[in-house]
Amino acid sequence: MLDDYLIADEPYYRPLGNEIALFEAAYAHRLPVMLKGPTGCGKTRFVEHMAWRLKRPIVTVSCHEDMTASDLVGRFLLDANGTLWHDGPLTLAVRHGAICYLDEIVEARQDTTVIIHSLTDDRRILPLEKKNELVRAHADFQLVISYNPGYQSVLKDLKESTKQRFVALDFDYPAAELEAKIVMHEASLPPAPAKLLVTVAAKSRNLKGHGLEEGASTRMLINAGLLMSKGVSFAEACQVAIVIPLTDDADLRDALRSAVAACQ
Ligand code: ADP
């Protein structure tokens, strides 16, 4: 069961600190883990790497504001023989002992988030109210959530009672040298252009709070690098993979473009 969710090949991951050991210690006690950090800084890659290391299947759900509890736990569906229950992704992970990764959990409505409460304390149970069933979590089940502290408003924050169930690991963009190595690996780039991209990222991150909501993520640098590996020039790759996606504001685009030009 859930063999499709096992990761066969090692996902490339360069540690930023001792997060691998910390996650392993948390998993040993099946403690729920929260990964905090800006978008595109390696949280998903890390949890995939850990699932591979721990040889556990991983079920990932990207949370969004229209997500209902049924989208997570499951629902009755009609077929030729009547109604049949279909486990949702969370229930699948709970029953069969996977790691369930709820990406961007705060996007989900608070009434959806509370269904994880009984799973994240020593009860480790998931009530399927519509089915009148109480699912006891498989011994190997673990819940992992990601959370981007930058986007939170008071209205869209995790409840205190939810937060306090998790151990949390802080993530951030890797230090320049490490980030260049990651870009080199992921975009098959030589060191010099990878370093240039990292310099552009640093400049864009300085604009955070001065109009930009977020600076360029590692993911954006990799996208730019992938374009460059197909012959696109540095300036144009930065333009389409970093400047245009980041902002629609003409002044900010100009500022970013000058930052790119200054790096060349
Ligand atoms: P997040 O889940 O934080 O939004 P991702 O995990 O999807 O971000 O990271 C975006 C990309 O950046 C990954 O696909 C991977 O290529 C790369 N990446 C970021 N950090 C690392 C790291 N520490 N080691 C290896 N790759 C990384």
UniProtKB/TrEMBL annotation:
Residues 29-150 form the AAA+ ATPase domain. The keyword ATP-binding applies. Gene3D superfamilies: P-loop containing nucleotide triphosphate hydrolases. SMART domains: AAA (SM00382). Pfam families: AAA_5, CbbQ_C. One of its GO terms (molecular function) is ATP binding. Keywords: ATP-binding, Nucleotide-binding. Belongs to the CbbQ/NirQ/NorQ/GpvN family. This is Nitric oxide reductase NorQ protein. The gene is norQ.
